[in-house]
Write a structure and sequence with these properties.
The protein is 70% helix and 3% strand. By secondary structure, the protein is mainly alpha-helical. The protein has one domain. The strands form two sheets. A two-stranded antiparallel ribbon has the order 1-4. Strands 2-3 form a two-stranded antiparallel ribbon. It is globular and about 55 Å long. The termini are close together.
Length: 321
């Protein structure tokens, strides 16, 4: 039983996320990290003429605070009592995962279309994507939803699990600090191109392995969901680099191939057109049911990643107990 202890926080955290999702009424570490980033951004803009260097300073402060505070908290808890340490680390792991939130928010789009309410679907998708949504038609809204589920399977679930496998909840906090900075500052427009450059590049580096590993897991689980594993692999091999980010198209291409749909293409951000390659083949039109299919793909991929994480934690860290 003692060999299972290093893996327990990941298991409990995953189960808590599956049951409860984001606790909106409670203080959330990611929201606290977001508040810290917003505060530091204002200070950096006031005090630094070189915003690229200021972005590096901002990133180091956020990372040290996020990983450092969580490390100190866990050291104190584990010193007091092993059970207390496991419970607190489990809660931190729970906070780092977003599978239930991703499903719940995307299913708001699905239910709106079930009710033939395009405007509610548009409003729901605007809460989970960064692009301008006011000009999207029904197919565009569905594509945007499928894309964000596919991309965030890595960013919101499997990548945090990857870093929690290596460093427990502290590894998860470290990753989410960088990922949150990228989501807030990593835009390629005039306002953020300098201050957000380092956080965006660092996020790219951290996701190089998890995004590719997640795409492979996504392909592997296709037969269980009666999706096309051969086409998922074919489109992933062909289209995995068709994105400005080195990572985003990894899971999007695997998902597009599994579903036999075409994703991506041109999109507007803050009123500015961004030219993008298509991902996948236009074998059939996207449909509302693709949102549910992608959510099932996300969850099964995440469960497989959890199983791998548990085995690795037991084999590596269980021996140290």
């Amino acid at each position: 039983m003692k060999y299972l202890i290093p893996a327990l926080p990941l298991i409990i955290g995953f189960i808590l996320d599956a049951i409860f999702g984001d606790p909106y009424s409670m203080p959330h570490p990611i929201r606290l990290i977001g508040n810290l980033i917003a505060f530091l951004e204002k200070q950096i803009r006031k005090r630094f003429q070189n915003l690229r260097f200021g972005g590096v300073v901002l990133a180091m402060i956020v990372i040290l605070c996020s990983a450092g505070i969580s490390a100190i908290l866990l050291m104190i808890c584990y010193h007091i009592n092993l059970i207390l340490g496991v419970l607190v680390e489990s809660i931190l792991c729970y906070y780092m995962l977003a599978a239930r939130c991703l499903r719940d928010e995307s299913m708001k789009v699905y239910r709106a279309f079930q009710n033939h309410d395009t405007e509610s679907a548009r409003k729901a998708v605007s809460m989970i994507v960064g692009r301008d949504t006011d000009i999207l038609d029904d197919a565009g809204i569905i594509r945007a939803t499928v894309e964000t589920i596919a991309e965030n399977t890595s960013d919101g679930v499997t990548a945090p699990l990857f870093y929690m496998t290596l460093g427990g909840a502290v590894g998860g906090c470290f990753y989410k600090a960088v990922n949150t900075m990228d989501s807030m500052l990593g835009y390629r427009n005039e306002k953020y191109i300098n201050i957000g450059r380092f956080p965006a590049k660092f996020d790219d580096v951290l996701n190089l392995i998890p995004s590719r590993f997640t795409a492979l897991l996504m392909i592997l689980v296709c037969p269980v969901l009666k999706l096309d594993i051969k086409n998922a692999y074919r489109i992933w091999k062909r289209d995995r680099r068709k994105h400005a980010s080195p990572n985003s198209a990894q899971t999007e291409s695997a998902c597009a191939g599994a579903l036999h749909v075409r994703l991506a293409g041109d999109a507007y951000y803050f009123g500015e057109l961004h030219k993008k390659d298509y991902i996948g083949d236009d074998d059939r039109p996207v449909e509302n049911e693709d949102i549910r299919r992608t959510n099932r793909l996300m969850y099964l991929t995440s469960i497989l990643m959890l199983l791998i994480a548990v085995i690795v934690r037991i084999l590596i860290f269980g021996r140290l107990l």
